[in-house]
Amino acid sequence: MTEQRVRWGILATGGIAAAFTADLVDLPDAEVVAVASRSEASAKAFAERFGIERAYGDWGALAEDADIDVVYVATPHAAHRAAAGLCLSAGRNVLCEKAFTLNTREAEELVRLAKDHGRFLMEAMWMYCNPMIRRLKALVDDGAIGEVRTVQADFGLAGPFPPSHRLRDPAQGGGALLDLGVYPVSFAQLLLGEPSDVTAKAVLSEEGVDLQTGALLSWDSGALASLHCSLTGGTATIASVTGSLGRIDIPDGFFHPDRFVLHRDGREPEEFVADPADGPRNSLKHEAREVMRALRAGETESALVPLEGTLAVMRTLDAIRDRVGVRYPGETGEIGETGETELTPA
């Protein structure tokens, strides 16, 4: 792929799909050419809203559209395996929302499909593409705070969410962990890699999903991460990374920061502030640019959001669910086991 426009297809028409499409249409090297929904009326309304040429009432038509370079999958995560798998099998490149899938087994199936078909695949972990998060990671990797000892992060929404809401529905992968907890877990593993041990406690709803979950991750180095997510209270969404020589604090909205403070022993605190040229803190353009950069370079995965990192996060999410007793419909025995060897895209 050269420097021509990258042609996008949008699969689903919910809030995150609208936010991402709104940012895409502002990028001069991106073109949104088609959208699909299980409802033709919804697809047409979305297409009219954003000036998209083609609207499909089924996912398969979008997957088979040869004019599309990459599909953004924005369904609820319970449908990610089916939607992304359909697109990969049809030869489309895919950017898939997080949580990447319901469990590690499904995630591994998508990675295998991408490799079998030679297609690009990336989890839409926009936090990893944020310029401030990239700067923070570079400082930590360069030893600015010494050896990392602890990570703390939280993400909670006040709710309340009625039982009919997707966040309370096991069939849609409901619960705080996959929707919100994926951010604290991904933040900790960005800095420390996959943990060697996982412990967790949760408060479960009557439907069997987690209303709030606390997890303690540990590493062989002695590092610990204390993480929390909730559907029952709006938390500060702050994060802190403490090392042997200092600390970095993200004061709010840690997963899309516009500033953070570096504290080093014997020095005045140093504040790092986002470049206004990078746009608003909630911009999804950094993620889109990374996808387009990788496609033009002929890469099948992103160095910023590598597939093995995505699989490692899924393994941790599975371990947390195992500890707190959350299983989704169809899972038997170990988390993710269904007795089937393969899921067929629907």
What topology, given as strand order, has the largest sheet? 8-9-10-7-11-12-13-14
Q: H/E order of the elements?
A: EHEHEHEHEHEHHEHEEEEEEEHH
Instruction: Kindly state the number of beta strands.
Output: 14
Q: pLDDT below 50 for ≥5 consecutive residues: which ranges?
A: 339-346
How do the helices and strands line up, and which of them pair or pack?
Blueprint: E1 6-11, H1 15-24, E2 30-36, H2 40-50, E3 54-56, H3 59-63, E4 70-73, H4 80-89, E5 93-96, H5 104-117, E6 121-123, H6 126-129, H7 131-141, E7 148-156, H8 176-192, E8 197-204, E9 210-218, E10 224-230, E11 239-243, E12 246-250, E13 259-264, E14 270-273, H9 285-296, H10 307-324
Parallel strand pairs: 1-2, 1-4, 2-3, 4-5, 5-6, 7-10
Antiparallel strand pairs: 7-11, 8-9, 9-10, 11-12, 12-13, 13-14
Account of the 3D structure:
The structure is a single chain. Helix 4 (80-89) packs parallel to helix 5 (104-117). The protein starts with 5 loop residues before the first strand and ends in a 22-residue tail after the last helix. The radius of gyration is 20 Å and the shape is globular. The protein contains ten helices and 14 strands. The chain has helices at residues 15-24, 40-50, 59-63, 80-89, 104-117, 126-129, 131-141, 176-192, 285-296, 307-324; strands spanning 6-11, 30-36, 54-56, 70-73, 93-96, 121-123, 148-156, 197-204, 210-218, 224-230, 239-243, 246-250, 259-264, 270-273. It has 346 residues and is α/β, with parallel strands linked by helices.
